[in-house]
Design goal:
The protein has 14 helices and no strands. By secondary structure, the protein is mostly helical. It has 2 domains: 205 residues, Serine Threonine Protein Phosphatase 5, Tetratricopeptide repeat (Alpha Horseshoe); 70 residues, no CATH class. Helix 2 packs parallel to helix 5.
């Protein structure tokens, strides 16, 4: 039976073994540390936003302002760790966009939704580029090994047809060699399949952050609609201050179909539109149970 030139596969799986060693290292890399820090914050995102979206936004922005370690494409484990980090960064931008939306900063929300899409798309592209090289590498190894087995098909079939009780010492050696071929072929194909599934996963992640229309476009349209409302406000066309005060004065009617959360969020928006308003902050306190309607009436008379 022909001898298998094993160098290609042995090098490949030696590389695969080094990935495992890196993964099991007790010492965390800067990439892993940064990912864990962001992940811990993400797990609290809903609670923080519900408690106070503006404070939550400040907390998220403090982390986002720190430059994350560069994407490392050296091997599978560094690629995986880097992708995990940047997936968390994208998620934190998404949470920041939610907090900005709820806190009235619609323009910031649009910006952060755009940033989330950019970050995940770039990370997914770098991950796919790195893993496609591995797929090509292991795919070539698979084809190489399969070609050797095909070239030895007659000998392999004869060996398989022979009763193992009648194996000679040479047959036993050839059987051991064949078993090794089959295992390496199986391992190589499983490696290709693993990388392909990983690429499928990151592709789905990127697609979730890049719907049509985009979340950025939805926010920008929301902003435009409000600008149109202000431009056409009968109490003072184009007058943002009068628009805000008019809504505060008639908030019960204007917000009658809003949920409690939507009322609070929209009031934050009024505070952004008219930063010097004395009534919008009081309305916010009324909605949050920290002030009364009488307090709002007094604020409106000042």
């Amino acid at each position: 039976m022909k001898h298998l030139r094993r160098s290609l596969l042995l090098i490949s799986f030696a590389a695969g073994a080094s990935f495992s060693c890196i993964a099991q290292s007790a010492e965390q890399t800067p990439i892993q540390e940064h990912a864990l820090k962001i992940g811990a914050l993400i797990s609290q995102a809903n609670q923080l936003i519900e408690a106070n979206p503006r404070e939550a936004l400040t907390t998220f922005e403090e982390i986002l302002q720190k430059e994350p370690p560069a994407f490392d494409s050296e091997n599978f484990n560094t690629v995986s760790a880097s992708y995990g980090l940047y997936a968390n960064v994208a998620r934190l931008y998404f949470e920041a966009a939610r907090a900005a939306d709820d806190g009235g900063y619609w323009e910031k929300s649009a910006e952060y939704h755009k940033k989330a899409a950019e970050v995940i798309s770039d990370a997914a592209a770098k991950t796919k580029e790195a893993l496609e090289k591995n797929i090509e590498y292991f795919g070539s190894a698979t084809k190489h090994l399969q070609a050797i087995m095909d070239a030895n098909a007659d000998e392999i079939n004869k060996l398989r047809a022979k009763d193992e009780k009648n194996y000679t010492n040479d047959d036993l050696l050839q059987k051991e060699k064949l078993t090794g071929w089959e295992k390496e072929l199986k391992d190589s194909q499983e490696t290709v399949d693993f990388y392909a599934k990983y690429i499928e996963r990151v592709t789905k992640d990127a697609a979730w952050y890049t719907p049509t229309p985009s979340r950025e476009e939805i926010m920008l349209d929301k902003i435009k609609q409000q600008r149109d409302q202000i431009e056409n406000y009968i109490g003072g066309r184009g007058n943002t201050v009068k628009f805000v005060e008019g809504i505060v004065a008639g908030y019960v009617k204007y917000m009658e179909n809003f949920s409690q959360g939507e009322k609070i969020s929209f009031t934050y928006r009024l505070m952004v539109l008219s930063p010097d308003s004395k009534t919008a902050p009081v309305l916010l306190d009324v909605l949050r149970g920290k002030a009364t309607k009488a307090d709002l009436d007094r604020a409106r008379k000042k």
